[in-house]
């Protein structure tokens, strides 16, 4: 896709963070947008911030975990905006827990949003992107879709799954010669609300509120920067987009030390854990 001007893009999870920044950037570039979220207040704020751009803005409350809601939304967007060129499967949540402690209901909650939400969005919009003759699918994975990390087992499972699903999809569409690009996006730490809204199973020396705050403080990249990188990935039809210096570094370490990186993480986590246990007394 050479330009997004005059095109139609649908974005899930657009009530906050990366989704909101994408909606604003695409609207500024003259792209009509269909934005959805379960957070209707956040969504209304995003719509208001996109309002001055002179493009069409369609909002809908859509829970990406519910296939029928995503399918109905895709049909509505195509009908009301005259077609769809881009779907950005962005909605996501976080969960901090060891695998021993993780509750099945929390694991399923996360998988239903972070993995199945991406599948629902891709399959519901694919026929419309094919019909548009110039389409792009963006699926948001993470650097945690590149490396496994203690207390992130559920999130890792979903984000690795998104990467595999997206890479397979890209190849299938290429084999068929369809004019639809596909990008797997791997952000590092982005300053958004994700950590604040995370579910956490507290465990001394593993996961606690202080650890979540420390983790969030290390996030370096703004959502606006992430949105610019994602737009470039669409325009340049990139297979993969890393976001942030931390993501570039993590990718390098994973490729240079594909198994040894785990020993390094274990050594770092043990040191961090001793400090956390000392702090807790
Ligand atoms: N922030 C980071 O450091 C980071 C890093 C890597 C990947 N990501 C990924 O980026 C994406 C966007 O996250 P963000 O950082 O902007 O977080 P955010 O919390 O600021 O925004 C996520 C949005 O998704 C929405 N959402 C949650 N559950 C939903 C559901 N069931 N249906 C529809 N919408 C739902 C939320 O209401 C929220 O508005 C996520 O997929 C996340 O996993 C974020």
Quick structural summary:
Keywords: Oxidoreductase. The protein is of the alpha/beta class and 281 residues long. The chain has helices at residues 17-28, 40-50, 67-81, 104-132, 153-175, 209-217, 223-235, 245-256, 260-280; strands at 8-11, 32-37, 57-61, 86-89, 95-96, 135-140, 180-187, 199-200, 240-243.
What would you say this structure looks like, in words?
The mean pLDDT is 96. This protein has a single domain (8-247), classed as Rossmann fold (3-Layer(aba) Sandwich). The strands form 2 sheets. A 7-stranded parallel β-sheet has the order 3-2-1-4-6-7-9, sandwiched between helices. A two-stranded parallel sheet has the order 5-8. α5 links the parallel β6 and β7. It is globular, with a radius of gyration of 19 Å. Helices cover 52% and strands 15% of the residues. It is α/β, with parallel strands linked by helices. α1 (17-28) runs parallel beside α2. Bound molecules: nicotinamide-adenine-dinucleotide. Nicotinamide-adenine-dinucleotide (NAD) binds next to α1.
